[in-house]
Write a structure and sequence with these properties.
This protein is an alpha/beta fold and 246 residues long. The chain contains eleven helices and eight strands. Helix 2 links the parallel strand 2 (36-40) and strand 3 (56-59). The model has no long low-confidence stretch (mean pLDDT 97). The structure holds phosphoenolpyruvate. Phosphoenolpyruvate is lined by residues 9, 161, 166-167, 204-207, 225-229.
């Protein structure tokens, strides 16, 4: 079957002192978890985390070029070089605030795969798109752009994150999320049925200790991408504890 995964997205938060406290709390309880966990953090803290966390570390972004005159960018090869294993790509904050396109996201995924890193591909619709019945059209368009250049077996995970649920306290119901996850899996299956059955499809959007178990009980929800609640190691541990091994 497929891995269950619970991934922290710290966004632009943290400090060396805060992170050290987070790691200490997390590492003490990590052995009791049955799902796999990953922490995605700002570039500057990744090396520290690789050296201290008992689980895999991920980046929150990557360059879409390999190397050269791209001031301020960080390549997939550089991330691999310091021991990073995963990277979030296409988060809605990057699509909305930094103008990332479906094609740009696909290019980043391809760079990660070439460097043997696992892309965590985020897809999701805005509230307006959901209200106008365009959810499937939007998330499948975002997925298709990536499937044109990356084989499904090379995707680390897909994260379905309705934009209207990120950091808002609003959550898709388990049934709403399950319906989209099933559509995403069916689209992957059209390309590679075997990969579709093993690919982890995560839900993200205001997941908290109180709502995690009902979301993770759905058959196509294989874990979560956790933003705000992941800043508190005890909340993140509670969410991970609510995610059963499959
Ligand atoms: C996210 O940013 O990926 C996210 C899911 O955030 P939150 O959990 O805060 O909604």
């Amino acid at each position: 079957m497929r891995d269950t995964l619970v991934i922290a997205n710290w966004k632009m938060n943290g400090s060396r002192a805060d992170n050290a406290r987070w790691v200490e709390t997390f590492n003490a309880k990590a052995p009791s978890l049955s799902s796999r966990c990953v922490v995605c953090a700002p570039f500057v803290y990744l090396s520290d985390l690789v050296n201290t966390l008992s689980i895999d570390v991920g980046a929150e972004n990557v360059a879409d070029e390999v190397q050269g005159a791209y001031t301020g960018e960080v390549s997939a090869e550089m991330l691999a070089d310091i021991g990073v294993k995963w990277t979030i790509v296409g988060h809605s904050e990057r699509r909305t605030l930094y103008g990332e396109t479906d094609e740009g996201v696909a290019k980043k995924c391809a760079r990660l795969v070439s460097a043997n890193l696992r892309p965590i591909l985020c897809v999701g619709e805005t509230l307006e798109e959901r209200k106008s019945g365009k959810t499937a059209e939007v998330v499948l368009r975002q997925l298709d752009a990536v499937l044109k250049v990356v084989s499904p077996k090379d995707l680390g995970a897909i994260a379905y994150e309705p934009v209207w649920a990120i950091g808002t306290g609003l959550t898709a119901t388990p049934e709403e999320a399950q319906a989209v996850h099933a559509q995403l899996r069916a689209r992957v299956a059209e390309v590679d049925d075997v990969a579709a059955q093993t690919l982890s499809i995560l839900y993200g959007g205001s997941v908290k200790p109180a709502n995690a178990a009902t979301l993770f009980a759905m058959p196509d929800i294989d874990g979560g991408l956790i933003g705000g609640a992941a800043l508190n190691p005890n909340d993140f541990l509670s969410i991970a504890q609510a995610c059963p091994a499959r």
